[in-house]
Amino acid sequence: MSQRKTRQRTVTALRPAFSAPSTASTAMLPLGAMLLAGSLSALAQTTPSNTLPTVTVREQAEAPEGKDALRATETGIGKGRQQLRDIPQSVTVVTEKLIDDRNLDTVKEALKNTAGITFLAAEGAEEDIRLRGFSLQATGDLFIDGMRDPAFYERDTFNLDRMEVLRGSASMLFGRGSTGGAVNQVSKVPRLITEHQVDLTLGSHAYRRATGDFNIQTGPDAALRINAMVTRADNNGSGSSLDKNGVAAAYRWGIGERNEFQASIYNLDNNNGINYGIPFIAPYAGAPATERVLLPLDPKNHYGLASDYNDGSATIAGFSHIHRLDRESEVKTQVRVGQFRRDQRSGAIRFAAAGFQPGGVAANLTNFGPDTVLQRNLHLKIQDMDTVQLQSDYNGTFEALGFKHEILAGVDASREEKTVYAARNALQGGVVPTKPLTTVGTPNDGAFVDESLRVLRVNNQYVSTGWGAYVQDMVQLTPTWKLVGGVRYDKLTGDYDAFGIPNNAPGPVTTTSYRMKVSEVSQRLGALWQPDALHSFHASAGTSFNTSGDAYSLGASNVDTPPEKSINLEIGAKLDSADKRFTTRLALFRSTKLNERNTDPDLPVVTLSGKRHVAGFEVDMSGRLSPIWEVYGSYMWIPIARVDKAAPCPATGACTQNTPGERVGDRPTLTPEHSGTVWSTWQLTPRLRMGAGLNFRSKQKPLRSEFHVPGFVTADLMAEYRFDFENLILKANLTNITNKLYADALYPAHYVPGAGRTLQVTASLKF
Are the CB atoms for 747 and 120 separated by under 8 Å? Predict the structure, then answer.
């Protein structure tokens, strides 16, 4: 696929100026953060400097987690460092050690190590992440260090310290968001130590990956950390080549002092191939829509063109300041600017029409073979996104009215601008290369079209501005009881411009504009019972909302549609072993989307006529069962999942009960009853460590489909040897050892296969 690297964009000038937000509004947003930080800073002047925490204690407390353990005890996903036992909600932490043990080089692969995760192979080929069956990516519920990471790109793990998954409502903390939860990617930060690590991985399909982690102490309270990555592969095991590189640098000074600062820059460039998806097939001629099966093909087969690609880049610059008022109170302010670019040229594979098939008969499993003809469709996804974010958070403790209070409070503001491009057809002044057919027996046939000939125009643009403010109080009622209450207010504005041209002429341009305004309040209420230092029990309720423009697209049908709203109820426990080396988390939950969007069959509008809920049980476990045996597991059981209300019946014709898709009483799509993972390692000798694990999902339905895709279980193995030179480690990973054929990401008419059997060997050198 070496010929595919033609990246020229020919764009017809068509980007009219859009209205910027008013001076008053833009001035007020950062002012809110400044006032919060300023007032707390003034308070700090009365705090003696000798009450500040020491650097040594702070750094040593963080060290045992991450690279050295599968178990985590702290998290930052709750806006400030908190003990996991003090959060009245389920949180799963994927530590750096688990990422390293299982060679998880993408965020998507890391997410598979948490229960309840599924993937939609969406129209743009972006991996739309689902948690408990509810969309995360489409509603922007991915974060980096507590700040929204809204763009679509293939995220890498080379700069991750850990990944945190908060389950259930998160709008009280983050504003707009889904019913399922939120994912926080925690970046590596400089530490007061000089230590470096270089990893080199070689594997199946000419996989080559080199990463470097360089931490340099530059002064008594300052350090620089640089992480770098280069990855190349002919195939990722499921039909996509890899060609990516990244670098992240952060400089941190004043570490542990009253005022601590960090400046950072991150860049990731993806120049990858893409398997957009291959079709489901009817098991026999005339099979009903309720019967479709997977193709019996090697998952590494690529049936797209050699010129297909999925390029993308993410450049993020950030600056943060922590002002410590005393040992237990601080204000953290962050500013971040992001620039994201995406250029995808590919298409879903489909069976060619019956006239092109052998014998002139439509393809089904009984006549499927090497001569079955496939067509390559066209799907372009070319878009730019620019973001600016400001966030200031306070967390601290004080006593009032005889009770101890732990306060979280903050303000944030953001501006997001997204521009989407479209290709002109021949009559509009463009060039449309013809994609040739192929056959099942000739994968990777090298066929190529010149993508640089396409002429692009601006199709639409979306500009959103928003701000929010929240406060949460955790009150220590008795030595064993805590009460948590929080509220947040959000105000959002979205401006969407669509630029249309005739189908048979290059102009004129017709501009249609829409504006969305949203004001919402989100709540969280919880109670904690902690009878001792080893056990914590909680009950909580929280709300969330997501807007009709959460996919950065507005139209006449949805511009006036209010936000969807959800509520999550949960009771659970976090239980530590007597030696505090092993933790078990348990939870019973019910997540309800109260007013789901549906399209009215008689009017071209989107209505809030739907409702669905899921209820189930979760369990996480992590830590050491013995000095040589370490375990991590995450499991979710959703026995109850139901569509309570569906789209209204049309005035004439069949009701929704007789149409494909989600109907009243149906189990929602992409919501398997069972899902999870388990990973276990054994230190057999001082030098030899072995590991084994499973990933599994039970059967599930694709979106708007009447058939089920089978469940699957994949197994992985690991062996690690530490040489006499103790800083050199050699590790081998064998994933999907049975070469299980399964569908990883689903769409109504196609799926992306999971990677087949792969072997990777990694050499790690610390110095």
Answer: yes
